[in-house]
DNA sequence: GCCAGTTCGTAAATCGTTTTACCACGGGCG
DNA sequence: CGCCCGTGGTAAAACGATTTACGAACTGGC
């Protein structure tokens, strides 16, 4: 109470390794060797250290430790939007991977804005993460002028597939477009609207490329009906409604994004068309709760677990050998055939 | 190449404050003062430091800095499941709050398992977070034997409302149950099934308490029909289907959780009952994409933004004054009246 | 011209841990 | 008995930033 305060709060700050050492009657070095050490320690000192640490509730200071060791065993994760179930699912998988490998992850979101993304990455660098998993805001990731020149080992996931200066892991989006469209063609559809949110990213354009390729391979090149809806559900709904007010209606819709899927469903309701009797739908990015829809949606889905597992191991490889040549992985997609796409009626 | 390696990787590790100092021809102390310092620095040295830092791409080492300063300006966030849209939404709000206040957040998920939760919290403590925001796995949070005795300032959010040893911020779940039920009663319903996932948590029990209170206040005490479905959508569906196969069907369902809402919808489909003509439904936890349902769901919703903002500021207060008495905030809920609940038909 | 006061720079201590260098002790062996 | 080596302990030097203590240079007032 009356004592002079030299140390900042002087309060009950966490016990240090020195406190443990004092209580156990050994040196800090020995404590360190007991807790994580490579060197042998006599059983009796080991025991007394364990007891002292337990009694004081000692928790190693991660910052001091990784300052000394030169690595943090932490991976930074950058996603556009954590509220988006696709990304939060990925993050959950990564978290499990990390736990298995003795790592921890540090999650930040960019709001799909390259400036915020850059700032968040700066702060991950300041925290000296050992690696980065990034779902980039733009395909030209890292091209902005203020961007940090040197990054820790990084892997681009989902977006910016095939980037020149990074490893990339993403779904095979061309196949996604191709298989979704082909399924409808096999069912006899010849007028298929392809609904997409935007053409700003290569992964979105790839899905449309797959759609085009499927038409072409089946001699339907002239029948392209591309609808670019926009980033919101409502915009997609409006776009598809406009398309369907025209005289010659498509008999099927292939929605190439999650949001455009929702937009298509709302439009079908609003137009009072019967799904799947009057129109077929192939949806995108089916997630568990979508099973509440009737009819069950035939859908193209990404394999989030594979995406997460592969990107994780590519990152680990990159950390192990920083100078290896870049890899570009494409993860196959899944087409789940359910009830929303039916043979064309005529 | 031929040189002897003394320092670990000897590679191009990040530049330190000493490197900047050397390049600028000043001491490290001066560099520190330029970058964050409280003390004045002459304009010319300031300039040369800025230039040197810029040229080297210097990024302050967050670990070294917070080791010295004694705080991290980091808040640990613990949620049961990041894939759950409710929690990922909360996290997104917190991230924004943190950015505004010059903090960063460190997110971990517990999988609703108290052991994992405890481990994750240990590692947040090792990282010396300045505070914790916790959606606890159990109402008796912190009671397990191995649990750390001293925690940084912490606020329990959503779950474990009214905990003895922590501040808590949660929705007014009794009101949620009361208002949802009252709405149905006002529409003339007298046989109302209350569907819940479990009775394991106080926030779930509170919703049922609200349901009971509403019945009682309207002289319907004898008409209680509680259906405890279970944690999965399917279990809820089965439970409600069983209930509806009995002779006297309820005329309305009040779903007190998100999962049970989905289960109820699936059951209604499966039983081939018309919503809202033959049965009324008050849903829980409406989120944006739920607008794709037809009819639009009348729903009780939690105010995630309020929840996040209030818990954040309670935590900041707690950090500022560690010895203040505990506060227990209840955030009002919202009842959105749409189309799925109609006056009872007879 | 001298003294007090301000400004600004540097050296060194510090945060808590890991790791290196060094030393004491004892056992085995020639 | 003398030497070598393995074991296990300690002190001290890192890691990179912040902050304290001190001192040099300059200013201004008398």
Q: Strand-residue fraction of chain A? A: 15-25%
Pair with the most extensive interface? A-B, 50 and 50 residues
If you consult CATH, what is the topology of the largest domain in chain A? Rossmann fold
Multimeric status of the protein: homodimer
Structural class of chain A: alpha/beta
| Average pLDDT score of chain A | 92
Radius of gyration of chain A: 27 Å
- Second-tier CATH architecture of the largest domain in chain A: 3-Layer(aba) Sandwich
Strand order of the largest sheet of chain A: 2-1-3-4-5-11
Detail the poorly predicted runs of chain A: 1-11
What is the H-and-E element order of chain A? HHHHEHEHEEEHEHEHEHEEHEE
How many β-strand stretches of chain A?
Answer: 12
Could you list some keywords that capture this structure?
homodimer; alpha/beta; 434 Repressor (Amino-terminal Domain); Rossmann fold; 3 domains; six-stranded parallel beta sheet; six-stranded mixed beta sheet; 12 strands; elongated; disordered N terminus; DNA-binding
Fold and architecture overview:
The structure is a homodimer of 346-residue chains. Chain A is α/β, with parallel strands linked by helices. Chain A folds into 3 domains: 17-60, 434 Repressor (Amino-terminal Domain); 72-170 and 304-331, Rossmann fold; 173-303, 3-Layer(aba) Sandwich (Rossmann fold). In chain A, 41% of the residues lie in helices and 16% in strands. Chain A is built from 11 helices and 12 strands. The model of chain A is unreliable at 1-11 (pLDDT under 50). At the A-B interface, helix 4, helix 5, strand 2, helix 6 and helix 10 of A face helix 4, helix 5, strand 2, helix 6 and helix 10 of B. The structure holds a DNA duplex (30 and 30 nucleotides).
